[in-house]
Amino acid sequence: MSSTPQSQAAIAVVRRNTEEVQGRGNYALFEELFAPDYLDHTPQPGGTPGRAGTLRLYKALRAAFPDFHADIHWQVADGDLVTTYKTYHGTHLGPFLGIAPTGKAIAFETVDAMRVRDGRIVEHWGVANLYKLLEQLGALPVTHPPSQPA
């Protein structure tokens, strides 16, 4: 799947977004990597589906978690569509989703699919384990798996 030059180039664009824009706050690069007609098919609640909504989300995450970064576990591409499985990490030092800073370290998994055309991200679909994030921030009760009979 990921062996064509088109797929490898698309993976490189998505990786740059994850590492440099999300992980380092390089918002000038955001402007280069995201196409003007970019569409987020799964914006976060209260977000908007265009570039402005995604940039606002990225900035909100970095404001709440100044050391926000991801460990990419794997990426695969089918032509121009790149799927990434990653774990985001950070320290909660700013307000997030109405939750005051806790100083807690967080980690939550995400799966993203991004379509890349002409070196720019044009579409996004994503699922994030926000329940786990909210649990770590103390906004939800900690759940434990049921005990197994001996």
Task: Write a brief structural summary.
It holds the Pfam family SnoaL. By secondary structure, the chain is an alpha+beta fold.
What does this structure look like?
Helix content is 31%, strand content 33%. It is α+β, with helices and mostly antiparallel strands and 150 residues long. The protein has one domain (5-136): Nuclear Transport Factor 2, Chain: A, CATH 3.10.450.50. Strands 1-5-4-3-2 form a 5-stranded mixed sheet. Strand 2 and strand 3 (81-91) form a beta hairpin. Helix 1 runs antiparallel to helix 2 (27-33). The N and C termini lie far apart (45 Å). Pfam families: SnoaL.
Low-confidence stretches: none
In the CATH hierarchy, what is the architecture at level 2? Roll
**Structural class by sheet pairing and helices:** alpha+beta
- As a percent range, the share of helical residues equals 25-40%
Number of helices: 4
CATH fold-level topology: Nuclear Transport Factor 2, Chain: A
Provide the gyration radius in Å: 16 Å
- The global form is globular
Number of individual domains = 1
Strands, total number: 5
Largest sheet: 5 strands, mixed
The mean pLDDT is: 95
Q: Quickly name the level 1 CATH class.
A: Alpha Beta
- The order of strands across the largest sheet is 1-5-4-3-2
